[in-house]
Every structure is written in C-alpha cells, then in structure tokens.
Amino acid sequence: MGNSLSYKGYTALVEFDAESGMLFGSVAGIRDGIFFEGRNADEMKQFFQEAVDDYLSFCKEKGKEPERPFKGSFNVRIGPELHEKAALAAAARKQSLNQFVAAAIAAAL
User: How far apart (Å, rounded) are the C-alpha atoms in residues 63 and 57?
Assistant: First the structure.
C-alpha cells in the first residue's frame, strides 16, 4: 500500500493535510493511540519508527503488555437475518461460520 508504513509488526496509515501541508499517521489495529506527523516521507518513516519505539518503551516501563495489531479475531455485528443466512450457507457447505466468513472476506479483498 502506498500510504502505509510497517515496523516491528505495526502498520501505520499516512494521510496528507492540504491545509497545513503536513503528513500525519496513526498505527492501525490497536486501541492505544500511536500518532506521528512530518513534512516528508523520510520524516514520516523516522517519526513512525520513533513513535513505535517510544510506545514499546513506555509499555515496558509501566509493566504493560503492548497491544499487538491484527490478532486474527474480531467481533462483527450484523442483523439476525444476515447471521441466519450466513450460518445456513456455511452449514450447507459443511463449513464453520468462521470458515465461511473468512472465505467471504478473502473473496472481497
């Protein structure tokens, strides 16, 4: 992806703010906020890596386990009718609902 950076298992999405002329980014997939900004691609890469390192140091100092993004499980809320249709379609294919949903997501991507 052209607007993302990866470092130590963390991925950040980068956006451009035309009004300020700045780039800004945030780490995706975690509840803790890791944010950074810069004026160009080199700064963004450097400040992203520093932000991740600072986050990991902070967690270690506080005795907190750092959040890890994209663990492979998430909750999805859908209406009961769609839930029923998906469960029945999965059963008809002799799949679990997890397998059915994973295949549907993979097909959509």
Answer: 10
Residue 103 lies in a domain: yes
Q: Could you count the other beta carbons within 10 Å of the beta carbon of residue 90?
A: 18
Domain count, the chain: 2
Q: Is residue 36 a contact partner of residue 47, using CB atoms and an 8 Å limit?
A: yes
| Cα 37 to Cα 35: distance, rounded to the nearest angstrom | 7
Whether the model clears a pTM of 0.85, i.e. scores above it, the answer is no
Q: Which domain holds residue 99?
A: 75-109
The rounded distance, in Å, linking the Cα atoms of 44 and 62 is 27
Q: Mean pLDDT for each 10-residue chunk of the chain (109 residues)? A: 89 95 95 95 97 98 94 90 95 94 95
Q: Does residue 28 contact residue 7 with C-beta atoms inside 8 Å?
A: no
- The Cα 14–Cα 16 span in angstroms is 7
